[in-house]
Amino acid sequence: MDLADVVLESGARSIAIVGTAKNVGKTVTLNYLVGELSSRGYTLGLLSSGRDGERVDVLTGEPKPQVYLPRGSWVATAEAFLEGASISLEVVDVWERPGVFGRLVLGRVVEPGLAELMGPRSARQLSSAVKKFLAYGADIVLVDGALDRKAAASPLVTEACILATGASSADDLNSMVETLESLVWAWSLPELEDALVAKLGARAVEKERVALLKLGGSGRGDAPGRPVLVFTEYPTALNYEEDIAQEIDESTLALVVPGSVDRVLLQEVTASLAQLRAGARGGIHRGPGATAGSRCGRSHEGTKSGRNPLLEVDRALAILDGTREGRLVADRAGSSSPERLPFYLVMRDPSCAMFRREQAVPLERTGGQLRVLERGRVLAVTINPCSSGEMVYEPRKLVRYIGEKVKPVPVFDVVSGESFWEEVA
Amino acid sequence: MLEGLKDPVEALDRAKEGAVLSSAELFLIGNLTWSARQAREALMETGLQWPACFEIPDLKSVEKEIFPGATSQLSFYVHDSYSPELARIRQERKRKERDWRTIMAEEASRVEKILGRRPGLHEEIAIRLTQKDLIEKARLMPELGETRETLTHVHFRLKATQEAVKLEREIARLRQKEAQAEEKVRATLSRKIAESTGDLEKALDALGEIDFLLARAAVCMDWPGVVPEIADGPVPLRLEGAWHPLVREEVESRGGRFQPVSITLTSPVTVITGPNMGGKTVTLATVGLSVALAQWGMLVPAKEMSFSLCDFVYFSSQPEEKPGLSSFAVEIVGVKAALARRKERGLLLLDEMGSGTNPAQGLALYAALLTYLASPENSACRVLATTHYGGLSALTGADHWQVRGLVSEGLDLAFFTEANGKEALEEGMKWLYDHMDYRLTRVSPDASVPHDALLVSRLLGLDREIVEAAEAIIAGRFRRLPIREEKP
Question: Is a pLDDT exceeding 50 seen at residue A239?
């Protein structure tokens, strides 16, 4: 079984190839897959996420390998890259794209050859380009994820991803492995088990607001145990980590963050949870003024008007309560032991996780759990044992070493043909 | 229908300049001809007589040039069918490439026979260092050349035979010729496009008009608006129950109730007075917007509207200062520009002109301007002007409308003066919004202007002592406090 078999067996029709750093053999992996899959008769769709088209690496000055575009494949490239290129395309669409490389050209390869790929900048447009290629008739779409462009591997864009890593991706092997482990871990973070909570979470993401899922926690006479989604005024957690974390109280089942989640938010949420568990902070039924200074707006609850412009409760959600979906909510409401109450920090998808695995450990120890609304999927890891043309590690040993760390994800060196994976019984 | 239309303006301009368009640019022009044909057919299907600006020229001949073959999907490629010469070159190149592949495949088979494996991607073979005998064998083979050695492998590449090298050279030469032939095709197409730019641009403009028409139709479906009555001769401008969509949205989003505007402008000049925060500026904006929308052929957000067409609408809003010009100067410069068109049937909306200078001169100037504009010898414009100056209407003989203003019964002023901070300000604003009667009524020219400024200041939380001192000044019982001495 080789990398192409893994791809075909996965059934995924769109796959991102993401490098953990520069010069990790991402394009080598991509070229390998292009060669293997097209020689087996599959029609490919090929594009890149963002800017990845320099002929010479801007950092190291080394020539960058181009991608082989087979006849009949659907590709996206920049108008500028087509001038003087050996390939030729049947143009099927032209997209405006800001930047020095000119418009984005989508087309079918008439004359095959080497060229550079290009793609739209936003995840939304990237996703629509992937869908377009599938609609044109591509069997599998491969997205070349540019340097640290995790967006390409977001479940919003591609169904699965392959992580490319190499010895040059970090100063030493250990930190390379750490990065890799964190990525594999994030991409296997579980989805919310409870469909009701997941529905509410999706609502917050759609509205682009950081939100808290509370059980009767709006403090306006809602029946206890009735789940409500409380929106804060913040579209992302950035710079307001402390304020947001302070909004977590005993009735909070989940904090949903639409954008990226970083180390600072993890720390603040952990601290807030720890305080709650230790009983150092009061519950929600405090008198007005008790939360003075809060910027999430609860301080306004005690004013004459009773109107709080900053805090909006989505009451329509209450009708979802009582269905079978709400088991987690029901369990939580019925639980009397505060120590065993779950708390979920919910991210849109693994590409939002801007922290390392070990940075999430304190939260988990405090009883918090990380969840995603859209789960990721890592098909394989590819390694490049060379750095700047110099062999740094013995491929067989490196493949085995990394294979042990990321199992059950299979590991390949497509250059030497070495591979490692644990058969799952 | 228009969703798929791309922006071809830059490509059109380049064609006009005589440039050879790229494939992507030719696609864009083709996309225009394709969209134009769809729209043209849709317009014809309606069976209506469309105004000239919607007329889309027949671009079939251009479309046929760019897309000679009928395709279900819009796409562009310099096909063989464009040029027999190109077809011939391509055929020859492909034949040579086939020959080259045959020769190399034979070489690869020879290698396979001896080494037991076939060269892979890029005609390369990597042999593990441990397979010493295999490496020795490979080194002795004339078909292979050693390229590099790593910690673990020795890499070889399949060498091209003399014949293959010759073919490679010929293929490269043919590719060059092919590129030239392709450029020739694109140059011919570009020239034809350049000849038709008149029609292409006309089609593009018409598509723009259709887009705008559709957008207006979409807005009309959103607003419960009204078709205005447009009179031929000069009639009063009458608005009943009109609203400004943006202001209304803002008011309703904070839970307030928007009071629609009703006003009739019968004489050349009409003056509006009213308290601060009384909606005078909103009235001006609503009148201006209603006229503009009506003249753009859109439904007007109102219950009723009747008017006669204007040549222009001028809105002198409360100006922001520009570098080197005070707000007063900005106003004057703006009005001067509007006055240059005073003989046309314009609508001038003036918001508290002259309030940025001393009151006596400001009033005099405003009154003089309005009187000047009211005279039929000087101007054909209709003017709607807001002011705080008492007596402006009396001075000019203009129609006078007034905002009903604050209904202050049951007001606990102490709450607002004693409370402080953001909450009190919010409460003050809320009280103002709730107790302001924004409706306009027609009053006599010499009706006095309201004195709500002090009350409003109080509601907005200005220090009580200051507001009371102001009240004392008005009542004529003001005593000045000793002035603080500044130490040098």
Answer: yes
